[in-house]
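Support request, please re-run this one:
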Amino acid sequence: MPRSTPPPAQTSLPSPPDGRGEWDVVVVGAGPAGTSAARAAAARGATVLLVDRAVFPRYKTCGGGLLGESLELLPERARAAIESEVAESVFTHRFRRPFRLRQPAPYLAMVRRADFDQALADAAQDAGARFADGVAVREVAETDDGALVQLRTSAGAVSAHVVIGADGTGGRVGRYVGVTPGGVDLGLEDEVAMPADATPWRDHVLLDWGGASGSYAWVFPKRDSLTVGVIQRRGAPDETRAYLTAWREHLGLAGPDAVTLHSSGHLTQWRTPSSPLRRGGVVVAGDAAGLLEPWTREGISFALRSGTWAGEAAASAAVAHTSTSASTRADAPATDAARRARDTALDAYEARVTAVLAPEQAAGATILKAFERRPGLIHALLRTPAGARYFVRFCRGETTLARIGRHRHVMRLLRALA
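Re-run finished. Output below.
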C-alpha cells in the first residue's frame, strides 16, 4: 500500500477567541468521534480547538456504512455526504451458499469517508469550533496542579481544561490514558472504480464470511466506486492480502478493466472492559478508546455517540472548573474543589459509555467467539426469517446487540457455540 507523506506543518495555531491563554476543550483527531465532540462542546458554549495530523480532505480506510443509529446523530451537512442507500444484501460463506436479503425500503446508508469527515468538520466549525489540520500531537502532559492539559504539537504548544483524544487506534492520546485493547484486527481495502455496467453493483452490499477465524469481506457501493475490503485478526497479513485478492477475483473485479483507485489498510481494536476512558483532564472516544463492536467491527455509530457524549461532558467540565476556580484568589492554583467539579462532569461520560456501549461490546464479543468457531452456523441463522429480520432491524437502529445480551437463552446458546 502507498506510504503517506507527512502533512505540511501549520506555522501557528489559532488563539482562543475569548483572549485567554488556554482553550476550554482541545480535540485531537477529526474523524466522526472528534468532530462530534468538537461540535457538541462548541454548541454548549465552550471554546474548542480541533486538530488533526492529516490535511483535509483525506482518505480514510473504512467501508463507510451508516446504521440507523448513526443517521440520527448526523448534522445536515453530513447527511448530504450520503452517496448510496442499500435495500439488499447478499451473504456468502467462503464464496459459497449465497442468499439474498431484500427489503422494500433501504436499511443502510453509504458514505465516502473523505467527504463525510470533511462535512462533519465543517459542521463543528459551524457550531463555533476552530479547526487546524496538518497538526501532529507529539506530547501530552498535565500541569502539576491538575488545572490544565498541555499538548506539544508540530505547530506549537497549546493548553486546555479538557483534552479529548479521538486520534484513532494506537493514537498518542490513547496511549497517554492507557487504553488496553481486547482484540486487534487488520483491515485491508481497495477502492475500485465502478464497473462500466454499474447496475449489478448499485444499492446493495456483498458480505462473505471467510475461512480464517473471525474474518469477513465486503463490497460497499458508493456513487462512482466500490469499496472492497477484508478484515481478520492481526498477525497474518499475507493471509489477509490473499483473502482480498481471492475476493476480488471471485467478484470479477481483478482483471485489467478493474481500476483500483486507492489501496490502504488499518488496524481496528476494541477495549477490554476494564480499559480506562480518562486520565485526569484527558478523555478518549471512538477508535482511540477502543469503542467499536467486536463482531462486525462497526465503529462509526460508537464514534458518533461517544464523541458527542465526550464533547458534552467536556463542555460541562470546563464550565465547572472555570466557575469554581473563579471563586478562589486570582493568583491561586486550581483548587481541589475545581478539580472535583471537573472530574464529576467527566465521570458522567465514563458512566454513560459503561451503561450504553459496554453491553453492546460485550454481546458483540460473545457473538464473535461463536462466529470464530462456527461461521457456517451464524450464516445459517441469518438465513432464517428471524435472523434476517433481526439483521435489518439492527441496521436500521431499531435494536442493538445489547438487547441480545439480555436474553439469557440466546446468550447461553452463543456461549455454547463459542
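The two ends are 35 Å apart (CA to CA). Residues 1-6 have pLDDT under 50 and may be disordered.
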